[in-house]
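All the exercises in this workshop are built on plain-text protein records. Instead of coordinates, the fold is spelled out as a row of discrete tokens. Once this layout is familiar, the rest of the handout is easier to follow. The record below serves as our worked example for the rest of this section.
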Amino acid sequence: QVQLVESGGGSVQPGGSLRLSCVVSGFTLDYYALGWFRQAPGKEREGVSCSSSSSGSTYYLESVKGRFTISRDSAKNTVYLQMNSLKPEDTAVYYCAADPYYSGCSDQLYRHWGKGTLVNVSS
């Protein structure tokens, strides 16, 4: 059974950093597209960063470019989202997701999802 479990969320002041982790099981990390998505109150879920398994393609939401970095550690079956220079508008529940194919960073493209971890950026 495919499972994804996020961790690393919490409260942080503007300008601070957090690293989100997503431990996956039930599939080989190297052969899956991986993505991070977020949903703020009253807003639609949006793709933050996604990465292919084979093509080398990586996507970042325009508003997080230069601040966030997606990476994976296949030995630990873990995908990370390093978030720096956090802003209040980054406040959301963050979800990791996986799919055997990479076609972009739309949530409809991903079939396996974690339950989310809350990130709150405020003073």
Summary: The chain has no helices and eleven strands. Residues 31 and 54 are 7 Å apart (CA to CA). The first strand starts at residue 3 and ends at 7. The chain has a mean pLDDT of 95.
